[in-house]
Structure formats: C-alpha cells, structure tokens
Amino acid sequence: QVQFVESGGGSVQPGGSLRLSCAASGFIDSLYVMGWYRQAPGKQREMVALSRGSGSTTYADSVKGRFTISRGNAKNTVHLQMSSLKPEDTAVYYCYTNRDSGYWGQGTQVTVSS
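^ thats the sequence. predicted structure below, dont judge the formating
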C-alpha cells in the first residue's frame, strides 16, 4: 500500500513559479516511476512529467522548458518545479506511481490567474 502527502499548490500570477512536492509512504525504489498528472475542469487527466529511477524523465510538450521534475535520493519523493506559469496550467495536480496497479495522490490545486 502506498499513500502520498502532496504539498506546494496554491495561487500565482502568470509568469510566476510554484514547487510541488510529493512524499510517499510505502516501498518505492528506483524500479518504479513517480510523476505528476493534472486535470483541469472539464478536461481529461493528462501526464505532466514522469521520473524513472534511472534518472530519465518525460515531459508533456506543453510544459517542456518550463517545468522540471526531480526525484529525492530515497526515490520515494518527487518534486515538480514549475516556472513561467500560464493560466492554462491551472488544474488539480496529482502525484502518481506505477507500483502495483498504480497509486494516486489526493491532488493539490494550482491556480494561475491575474
């Protein structure tokens, strides 16, 4: 069983920055992917960024060059540094791991608005 504690969401003006963090309880090591998805109102949940234990990463095209995902040394934490935020980044952001059949965090709201 895996549970997540997510933090760092909030409201910011366009062009601003936020850092999301996710800490997992339960066993997650470098074998597993950790990452972030997001869901905006009326839209499907979409992948934002994924981090593999090997160090490789994947980003959605819409966030490349603006967001950076990083993994803690213990591999059971993951962070998302978000810069140059746009109103279209507004969504609930969910932490995720592919261990077992997959686990999701409870979500943290990110609102980008002037």
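The two ends are 40 Å apart (CA to CA).
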